[in-house]
């Protein structure tokens, strides 16, 4: 589906604003050099937002199942055995040492490596089967439970890193070392844009009440790809995109007048020196002007019906909340943004996990489910891939004091759960199996590279063929690894 | 037009201008014609990587290819039909044909490439070592037809190549353009109107040379030159990784600026930064210089393991050092033999061993530095601190005594206390330095690059890769970091001079002679002008590594002095302007854009040195991504006030996890890892930044103030003055008309809305000249903002 022209920012969203006359007609159509700008631009590669707007030649490599992605990144490491991976057997081991046959001497962080004991902490939360699919979900996720038949839960994710920074960097860029492009940047580079007036890749961050772990802008960065592919951050402030608002004392009329004169002068210069980069600059100023109208219209959630606002829950009216960003993600997708990346901070529950995870689920459960339902109701879920998950899981053994209803968990890279929905994913299934302690994977491990390969596959991209040469090497998101997990595909 | 056609057209055009195509009469040159084919189609499976090697065949080296392999030879000199190489690439059966189907599908071998290989074998099939690993020899100056054009040797090389393609170079740029270009290129700031006028008035033959010499001796020059070095050295004011604590590494940054300003010879500059601590009786300054290899990120994340990050730091040092001086991508060999370049995994750990001997910890850095470091007193802060403390005591006495208005006194006291708190945090810099452990820490090869899998069967000593030793008269490797540094700038290393002059070229022409300035390896791009690169490299060592002399040489060439106007016919032949039939037109960096705006506004503070400063930035940027609780020293952004808002952008505080937004929008990179080449994009985010960032609004209102106070009585003269401040040249009638019309219109608008005028004039913290009528000031502020937003204003023409 092409983005709906009736909701695109180029039409209704700024219909009350007179068109911007930047003096193009006069100066741009034919320059004194005797060559039209259109012809010039066929010779010169452009470097702008719109550059590469059609993506790479030959990409997608095959018919995509998903045209867009919403990645709901849960930062900090959500606890798999309290949310998705029930382990009733652990009950018998309450406060007993985790068996050596399970731990197998694997490395642990220095936050718990000094502990004298590694006692098993069973989850205090009840699990039930839901929907026709009978997927098991924790009582912490009443709303996600309603979409049990729409999601595919991968219980056998495994990562290589044990601390947040390297693990998040790995999860977003396929490498623990900084400097690689994020997955959204790769998608933008390969597939280009559907909407010339908006970036292909948008990132948003929000935070919960506990277990705060910082983020870094490299997580939505373009690494060694041109910076046009980096995620543009949408913020919950009055300036939803950096520097979007006109400064105090410059009205829209003054701004339009100023840009009109600026365009005229830039046009004259283009005429004099013939550098097509000036034509691109003029186009970017026009786009920026349009964004000043279209982005506030896009981020204004008050135009949504009451029913929709209630669907996403009470936080939806708070700017910058996870709920508002889930709804915003839908609106971005509708307008053809290729990749929307959310980061919700707060899953790093080392101390009082039961209390903190309740808060965290309160913030995220309803909006996440609402997003899936909302997309489905609009017929968008089929072509939109939604991914929910964090950088690693949490330990079976307790960190700190252990009670039935109060315990903490350290980082655990050896198994964790994510879910996916829509965009060509097989709905209503669970994939992969962990042992009775949710400590090791016993069936069908899925590496982070495999998840990336699968996501790209759904976008119609062969992960082995989406490359960028740096220092003589053709780099890929999946390095030299990655397997498309066919079992997850519809 | 579809992007595919556009791309094709581009490639067709690029092919025409490409610098390595064969003509029928020219003999095949291995490095130019053959090696790139082997590198892109064969070397992955038949190259240096022993684990990936197929069929026991190496095609990156010529050794043994003529041997009998049981009835056939890979390469029979002069006899392509008898060469298995040709037989296999032309085999009728796709399963037997090379490259194998899965590679051929992605990048098939072209008919023309097959012909080249065939011709090469016909002509003898000789291998030559990779061009970059062969010592530069000073080539003779090429002959040119247009003998009057060259001003120095550079021009002979550029012109002879142009003449080969029947292209004529451009005319010299007009003087206003030329002086603006040179001034921005060497100092990062625009020339004053006086400087432009006196250059225009100077008819002497060496008028431009005089300008260049004046610029080179300005302290602004060293400061500007330091910028690219800071990017390469991944310098930052924070530690990076997750919590991203503040670090006080600025004494190293000041050392760099000072070294450039003193024109320290590049060999000394190198040795002091790589091993200043190991020099006999190393001075504090020489120790500070070694901060170069401590500028990498340092982790302190709770729960992280020392051993893991100790490895990361050493790897970063090898990577950075190899990229900056050798143009070598060493990092690949951390996990396995290099796929394309002659660097085995074991050799990587030989390099690693030079940098693996520092008394450091993997998890460190919360106190502003990680061991080892030296503390430097920040004299200025100490003086300012004492002054304020004295003032505070005095003020407190006055307020207590009930003299003077009480509330005002309390506000003053509160402000003073804030300043004192800030200054107390900045009375010292803590420069992290390199040091050697008394006994060498063993180095083990790490299987798959994993710190958890050291191969303890062998302690690998510090050693150079074989490819470099082969070029040496002596077979011995440097034994330690100091000897390595000396080797890097010594006569046995073919790379440092080339790699360095290439970066200078990149600085002035936007693209290096080797476009991939970070990679001089077999998969890097070949130089556009190989002889010129060699000539410049030999010249650099001939003048004893004198950087300013090299800048002078480049700037005073006829090549540099050309106009940048695009000729469409030439552009069709050479769309990337690699042949330099004109000067490039390059967008300024984010740093230069901001500094220029502050400079033309008269706001710029040129005070050099000291701790970094926190300039305007949209609120909440740090808080959104940090702990947000005050857990680290950089959770909250506390913007500075007064002079610190107007320092040169070199001094803008750089937090790694949240790069300064304006610099980042203009392709500033992240300072997370070594970077020697950057993109130049053209985006709507840049347009929004220049129009709406308070930095530029404030600069515009000060520029307007200057136009009104210094620009004469008429609107026309005031606008001309502002135009010249921003662009150097005078506006033509058309251009002037547009802005006079604009100013008149804006004046009407603001006369009708004084409130808006005052709002506009209150952007930024500096005060304004109240004697100027607000509507007039506001109107010219919009005009000034228009000037700062002109494409020409942010471009080196």
Strand content of chain B: under 5%
What fraction, in percent, of the residue positions of chain A are helical?
25-40%
Number of strands of chain A: 17
Tally the helices of chain B: what do you get?
A: 33
Overall structural class of chain B, as computed from helix and strand content, comes to mainly alpha
Overall CATH class of chain A: Alpha Beta
- What is the mean pLDDT of chain B? 91
Biggest sheet of chain B, in brief? 2 strands, antiparallel
User: What would the CATH topology of chain A be?
Assistant: Alkaline Phosphatase, subunit A
The largest inter-chain interface, given as chain pair and residues per side, is: A-B, 98 and 114 residues
Numbering strands along the chain, what is their spatial order in the largest sheet of chain B?
1-2
- Unreliable spans of chain B are 1-21
What letter string, H or E per element, gives the SSE order of chain A? HHEHHEEHEHHEEHHHHEHEEEEEEEEHEE
Q: How large is the radius of gyration of chain B?
A: 30 Å
- Distance from N terminus to C terminus of chain B (CA atoms, Å) equals 29 Å
How would you classify the helix and strand content of chain A by structural class?
alpha/beta
Distance between the termini of chain A: 19 Å
CATH architecture identity of chain A? 3-Layer(aba) Sandwich
* Assembly state of the chains shown: heterodimer
């Amino acid at each position: 589906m092409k983005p709906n022209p009736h909701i695109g920012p180029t039409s209704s969203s700024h219909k009350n604003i007179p068109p911007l006359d930047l003096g193009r007609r006069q100066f741009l159509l034919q320059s004194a050099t005797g060559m039209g700008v259109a012809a010039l631009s066929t010779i010169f590669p452009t470097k702008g937002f719109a550059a590469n707007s059609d993506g790479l030649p030959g990409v997608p490599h095959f018919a995509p199942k998903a045209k867009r992605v919403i990645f709901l990144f849960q930062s900090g490491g959500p606890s798999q055995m309290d949310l998705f991976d029930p382990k009733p057997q652990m009950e018998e081991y309450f406060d007993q040492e985790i068996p050596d046959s399970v731990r197998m001497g694997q490395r642990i962080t220095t936050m718990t490596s000094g502990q004298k004991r590694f006692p098993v902490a069973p989850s205090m939360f009840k699990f039930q089967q839901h929907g026709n699919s009978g997927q098991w979900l924790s009582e912490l996720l009443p709303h996600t439970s309603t979409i049990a038949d729409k999601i595919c839960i991968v219980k056998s994710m495994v990562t290589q890193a044990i601390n947040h920074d390297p693990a998040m960097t790995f999860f977003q860029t396929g490498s623990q070392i900084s400097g690689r492009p994020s997955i959204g940047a790769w998608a933008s580079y390969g597939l280009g844009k559907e909407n010339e007036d908006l970036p292909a890749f948008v990132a948003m961050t929000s935070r919960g009440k506990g277990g705060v772990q910082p983020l870094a802008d490299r997580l939505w960065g373009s690494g060694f790809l041109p910076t046009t592919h980096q995620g543009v951050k949408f913020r919950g402030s009055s300036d939803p995109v950096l520097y979007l608002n006109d400064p105090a004392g410059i009205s829209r009329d003054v701004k339009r007048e100023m840009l009109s004169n600026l365009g005229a002068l830039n046009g004259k210069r283009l005429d004099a020196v013939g550098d097509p980069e000036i034509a691109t600059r003029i186009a970017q100023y026009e786009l920026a002007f349009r964004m000043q109208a279209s982005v506030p219209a896009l981020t204004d959630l008050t135009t949504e019906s009451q029913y929709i606002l209630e669907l996403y829950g009470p936080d939806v009216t708070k700017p910058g909340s996870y709920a508002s960003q889930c709804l915003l993600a839908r609106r971005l997708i509708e307008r053809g943004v290729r990749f929307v990346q959310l980061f919700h901070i707060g899953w790093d529950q080392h101390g009082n996990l039961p209390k903190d995870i309740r808060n965290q689920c309160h913030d995220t459960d309803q909006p996440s489910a609402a997003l899936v339902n909302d997309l489905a109701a609009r017929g968008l879920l089929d072509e939109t891939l939604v991914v929910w998950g964090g950088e690693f899981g949490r330990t079976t053994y307790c960190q700190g004091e252990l009670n039935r209803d109060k315990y903490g968990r350290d980082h655990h890279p050896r198994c964790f759960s994510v879910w996916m929905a829509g965009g060509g994913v097989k709905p209503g299934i669970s994939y992969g199996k962990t042992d009775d302690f949710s400590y090791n994977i016993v069936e069908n491990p899925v590496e982070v590279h495999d998840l990336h390969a699968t996501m790209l596959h759904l976008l119609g991209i062969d992960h082995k063929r989406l490359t960028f040469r740096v220092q003589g090497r053709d780099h890929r998101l999946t390095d030299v690894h990655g397997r498309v997990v066919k079992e997850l595909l519809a | 037009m579809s992007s595919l056609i556009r791309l094709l057209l581009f490639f067709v055009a690029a092919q025409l201008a490409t610098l390595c195509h064969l003509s029928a009469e020219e003999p095949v040159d291995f490095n130019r014609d053959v090696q790139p084919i082997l590198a892109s189609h064969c070397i992955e499976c038949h190259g240096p990587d022993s684990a990936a090697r197929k069929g026991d065949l190496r095609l990156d080296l010529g050794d043994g290819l003529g041997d009998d392999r049981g009835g056939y030879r890979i390469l029979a000199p002069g006899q392509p039909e008898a060469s298995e190489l040709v037989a296999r690439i032309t085999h009728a059966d796709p399963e037997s044909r090379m490259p194998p189907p899965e590679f051929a599908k992605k990048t098939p071998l072209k008919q023309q490439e097959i012909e080249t290989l065939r011709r090469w074998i016909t002509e003898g099939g000789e291998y030559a070592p990779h061009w970059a690993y062969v010592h530069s020899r000073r080539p003779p100056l090429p002959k040119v037809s247009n003998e009057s054009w060259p001003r120095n040797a550079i021009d002979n090389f550029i012109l002879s190549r142009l003449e080969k393609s029947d292209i004529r170079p451009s005319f010299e740029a007009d003087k206003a353009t030329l002086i603006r270009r040179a001034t921005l290129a060497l100092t990062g700031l625009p020339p004053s109107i006086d400087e432009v006028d006196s250059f225009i008035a100077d008819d002497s033959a060496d008028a431009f040379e005089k300008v260049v010499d004046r610029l080179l001796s300005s302290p602004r020059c060293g400061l500007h030159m330091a910028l690219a070095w800071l990017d390469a050295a991944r310098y930052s004011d924070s530690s990076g990784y997750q919590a991203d604590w503040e670090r006080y590494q600025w004494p190293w940054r000041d050392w760099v600026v000072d070294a450039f300003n003193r024109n320290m010879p590049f060999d000394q500059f190198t040795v002091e930064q790589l091993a200043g601590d190991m020099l006999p009786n190393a001075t504090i300054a020489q120790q500070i210089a070694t901060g170069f290899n401590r500028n990498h990120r340092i982790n302190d994340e709770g729960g992280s393991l020392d051993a893991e990050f100790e490895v990361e730091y050493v790897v970063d040092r090898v990577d950075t050092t190899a990229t900056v001086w050798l143009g070598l991508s060493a990092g690949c060999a951390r996990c396995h033999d290099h796929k394309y370049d002659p660097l085995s995994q074991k050799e990587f750990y030989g390099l690693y061993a030079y940098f693996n001997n520092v008394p450091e910890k993997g998890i460190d850095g919360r106190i502003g530095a990680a061991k080892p470091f030296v503390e430097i007193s920040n004299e200025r802060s100490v003086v300012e601190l004492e002054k304020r403390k004295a003032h505070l005591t005095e003020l407190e006495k006055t307020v207590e005594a009930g003299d003077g208005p009480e509330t005002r006194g309390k506000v003053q006291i509160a402000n003073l206390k804030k300043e004192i708190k800030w200054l107390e945090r900045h009375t010292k810099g803590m420069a992290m330095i390199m040091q050697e452990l008394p006994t060498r820490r063993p180095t083990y090869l790490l299987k798959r690059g994993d710190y958890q899998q050291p191969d303890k069967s062998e302690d690998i000593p510090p050693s150079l890769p074989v490819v470099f030793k082969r070029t040496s008269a002596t077979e011995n490797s440097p034994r330690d970091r100091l000897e390595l540094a000396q080797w890097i700038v010594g006569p046995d290393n073919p790379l440092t001079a080339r790699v360095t002059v290439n970066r200078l070229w990149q600085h002035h022409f936007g693209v290096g002679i080797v476009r991939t300035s970070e990679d001089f390896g077999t998969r890097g791009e070949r130089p556009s002008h190989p002889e010129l690169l060699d000539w410049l490299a030999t010249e650099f060592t001939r003048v004893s590594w004198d950087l300013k002399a090299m800048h002078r040489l480049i700037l005073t060439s006829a090549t540099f002095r050309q106009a940048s106007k695009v000729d469409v016919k030439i552009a069709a032949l050479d769309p990337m302007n690699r042949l330099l039939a004109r000067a490039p037109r390059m967008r300024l960096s984010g740093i230069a854009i901001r500094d220029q705006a502050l400079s033309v506004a008269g706001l710029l503070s040129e005070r050099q040195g000291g701790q970094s400063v926190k300039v305007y930035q949209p609120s909440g940027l740090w808080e959104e991504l940090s702990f947000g609780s005050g857990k680290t020293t950089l959770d909250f952004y506390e913007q500075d006030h007064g002079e610190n808002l107007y320092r040169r952008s070199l001094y803008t505080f750089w937090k790694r996890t949240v790069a300064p937004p304006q610099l980042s929008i203009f392709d500033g990179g992240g300072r997370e890892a070594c970077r020697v080449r950057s993109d130049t994009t053209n985006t709507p985010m840049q347009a929004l930044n220049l129009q709406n960032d308070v930095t530029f609004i404030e600069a515009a209102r000060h520029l307007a103030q200057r136009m009104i106070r210094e620009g004469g009585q008429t609107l026309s003269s005031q606008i001309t003055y502002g135009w010249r401040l921003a662009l150097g040249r005078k506006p033509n009638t058309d251009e002037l008309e547009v802005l006079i019309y604009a100013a008149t219109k804006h004046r009407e608008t603001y006369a009708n809305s004084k409130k808006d005028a005052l709002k506009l004039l209150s952007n930024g913290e500096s005060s304004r000249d109240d004697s100027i009528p607000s509507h007039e000031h506001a109107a010219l502020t919009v005009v000034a903002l228009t000037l700062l937003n002109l494409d020409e204003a942010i471009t080196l023409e």
